Amino acid sequence: MPEPEGNRLSPQGVPYTDLPHIVNADGLHLFCRYWEPDSQPKALVFVAHGAGEHCGGYADIAHSLTQHGILVFAHDHVGHGQSEGERMDIKNFQIYIRDALQHIDIMKGRYPNLPVFIIGHSMGGSISILTACERPQDFAGVVLIGPMVQMNAESATPFKVEAYDTDELNYHGGLRVSFGMQLMDAAARIKRELPNITWPFFILHGDADKLCDIGGTHLMYNEAKSTDKNLKVYEKAYHALHHDLPETVESVLKKVSTWILERLPSPHGS
């Protein structure tokens, strides 16, 4: 029997009654973050974090968007950060996509008629691609930062590199074989979907990324049918561009904000 709502504690021992959260279709509590602008929001942006990390690492991206009147929201995926679930293990990759769509639908219900964008990094890039493929009409655009489009031999082992070791909310264990299999399945699904993609996207990737093969990014850019697609390659930059050298971070934040703002409907229908 699951614990009654009032007694459910996060993996860190905090009652969920004290934390912003949603409850997914499996009855698991997912910790949420909301970055709200000071004014009435012009758009919604859902952020999908990478494997082994949590959504708290996206505050800089969120703040760069809230300054422009955009509401940013995210949750820690099942088994990550302050959410329930077996750490870094999942029966089916589709759970991440289903949960993302649930959270997006909740926010669309609160803010009807606003354009919705997704930003995804690494495994969160895979989640973003497949989420947009499931509901192509629902999204005004997708931003992918070092996305996992295809798996290479290296990316199957060093996902730990992503975890900044000073952050106790990141996962510091090894990668389970079953989890690696789910990532491979996701990559295979993406490969099948690429020729069907028509929604707008912007990919930013470092050419020194050891985790997510930039070859996958080039493949997506070339194979997707989208007429609105952009690619920015950062030379000598690594996997987590939004945590790279300051000048890279500054460029990433500016480019991401600009790309999203350029795709908002103009006010007063002009």
TrEMBL record:
<protein>
    <recommendedName>
        <fullName>Serine aminopeptidase S33 domain-containing protein</fullName>
    </recommendedName>
</protein>
<dbReference type="InterPro" id="IPR051044">
    <property type="entry name" value="MAG_DAG_Lipase"/>
</dbReference>
<dbReference type="InterPro" id="IPR029058">
    <property type="entry name" value="AB_hydrolase_fold"/>
</dbReference>
<dbReference type="InterPro" id="IPR022742">
    <property type="entry name" value="Hydrolase_4"/>
</dbReference>
<dbReference type="InterPro" id="IPR000073">
    <property type="entry name" value="AB_hydrolase_1"/>
</dbReference>
<feature type="domain" description="Serine aminopeptidase S33">
    <location>
        <begin position="40"/>
        <end position="159"/>
    </location>
</feature>
<dbReference type="Pfam" id="PF12146">
    <property type="entry name" value="Hydrolase_4"/>
</dbReference>
